[in-house]
Amino acid sequence: MRSNPTADVCIIVEGCYPYVAGGVSSWINWLISGLPDLTFSVVAVLSSSQNGTPKYKLPSNVIEYQELALFDIHDPQPAPDYGSASINEISRELRAFLKNGSKARLYDLDRLVNSASRPWTINQLTNSDLTWNVICQMYEEILPETSFHHFFWAWYTLFGGLFAVLKAPIPKAKAYHTISTGYAGLFAARAAISTGAPAIITEHGIYTNERRIEILLADWIEDSINKGFSLDDPRLDLRDLWITAFESFARCCYNCCSDITTLYKDNQLMQLSQGACQSKMQVIPNGIDLNKFSAVPARQDNHKPTVALIGRVVAIKDVKSFIHAIALLQEELPTVEALILGPTDEEPAYFEECKTLVSQLQLEETITFTGPVNIAEYLPSINLVALTSLSEAQPLVLLEAGAAGIPCVATDVGSCREVLEGRSDDPAPLGAGGIITELVSPFATAKAMAKLLNDHNLRQQFGAQLRKRIERDYNEHQALHSYRDLYARNFNRTAEQESRLFA
Question: Taking the model in full, what pTM does it have?
Answer without folding.
Answer: 0.85
